[in-house]
Design goal:
This protein is an all-alpha fold. Helices cover 58% and strands 0% of the residues.
Amino acid sequence: MASSPIQISLPESLTPYVEAQVESGFYGNPAEYVRDLILDDRDRRLTRLEDRLLEATKGEAIELSDEDWESDDLIEILRSKLPVAR
């Protein structure tokens, strides 16, 4: 998998924390730590979406058109049709 370089800046107050995570031995470098945080965030968001979709199966039907099903934005369409999260 090719990676594209993305540079981020952190406040100085966070640098020691990130360095400590790397020094713990679990991460080889700061990029691995940040990548892990991003993957965790993605997983949490997908889990929340799955939970909302499952909850929606217990509620009113969500109507989707043929165009909705064929859309590249199906997930966004579903999000817009789900009840507001509590």
